[in-house]
Known about the structure:
Elements lengths: L9 E5 L4 H12 L3 E6 L2 H13 L3 E6 L5 H15 L4 E3 L11 H4 L2 H11 L4
Parallel strand pairs: 1-2, 1-4, 2-3
Amino acid sequence: MEAFRLDGRVALITGGGSGIGRGCAKMFAKNGASVMITGRREHRLAEVCEEIAAEGGICSYVAADLSQEEGCRAAVEECLRTFGRLDIVVNSAGSRGANGDLEQEFSTENYRKTMAVDLDSR
Length: 122
């Protein structure tokens, strides 16, 4: 893993509160990067930052809706304000959809919401 050292680098990871984003944040921090995580669920983001800090890593977070351009802009701006730079971006934000009956799952509204997060997150 020595080839994966990220000392002095700053990573912005979307969807950092759970799943792949959480795993990436922990791995990047373990390998020396300062990590800014973002997502919609602030309590989940705070938990991940606490886990990283407990392991000696550096992590901060910003809660944002990445399906909206303002949320994406806020995440980058907070990263730059906190760490002064941005070297790595991992786009891991995703939506699970409506998780309801078939009519909800295949509705136009659910489709657009899912696409806004899964494809349009910047």
